[in-house]
Amino acid sequence: MTKTLLTIMALASLLCGCQRTSREMWEDTKTCGRYMGRGFRSFCGQHTDSREYAMNKYWNDESEFIPLADSAQYDNLYFSKESPGDPGSQIPGIEAFSSPTEKLAQVFNNIHFDLDNYTVKGRENLEKLEKIAHYLVNHPKTYIFAEGHADERGASAYNLALGSKRANSIRNFLIENGVHPDQLFTISYGKERPAALGHDELAWQQNRRSQFKIYAK
User: Which pLDDT value is given to residue 78?
Assistant: First the structure.
């Protein structure tokens, strides 16, 4: 008798505490069925790409260069054997690197970026980098610092990180186009060294950039 009473009380409590309509219960049942179906298909090896991954397949085109993600498999290819200014290094510190001369300025042009972005976009930017790569391949004793810069908006730490990504995207592009990694170094200045001092979109566009310092033996 006691067990029966406890069972009735438990059922009554459950029914009173769950004020869901029959439509809501039906929607829950359908959702449960969909997830069970996906799990079964995945178990059978028939899983599909996520929506984000499927969209990413179509984002890249010939007018963009998206740098490789950080990965240990690229360590030997993408990192220089020595750093400028290190004891015993044949390459001096960054203070010995200078802005391009008038002649070299025709080769080492600034590369500009979209807001909050470090992807090299646009045929003009790509042609500039191809020209730089061609010069460096033919001048193996020339070394450069690719500087990363950002506009004035945002926190200093964020812009330093963004500048670093921009500089490294330039470096990766040049390596992909035949330049030896030992010729290439990067540095980020974030928003600390603006090229334009205005506070409008025109100035911000000029400041979202990568520019170059050069040293030749």
Answer: 56
Residue 12 burial (CB count, 10 A):
10
Residue 180 forms part of a structural domain: yes
Nearest CA to 212 out of 161, 132, 144, 159 is that of 144
Count the domains in the chain. Answer: 1
Tell whether the torsion through CA atoms of 25, 26, 29 and 31 is positive or negative: negative
169 located within any domain? yes
Residue 160, in any domain of the structure: yes
pLDDT in tens, 173-204: 999 999 999 999 999 999 999 999 999 999 99
This model's pTM is above 0.85: no
Range of the domain at 87: 61-216
Domain CATH code at residue 209? 3.30.1330.60
Pairwise CA distance, residues 192 & 164, whole Å: 13
Identify which has the larger pLDDT, 32 or 87: 87
> What confidence score (pLDDT) does residue 64 get?
64
Whether 99 is covered by a domain: the verdict is: yes
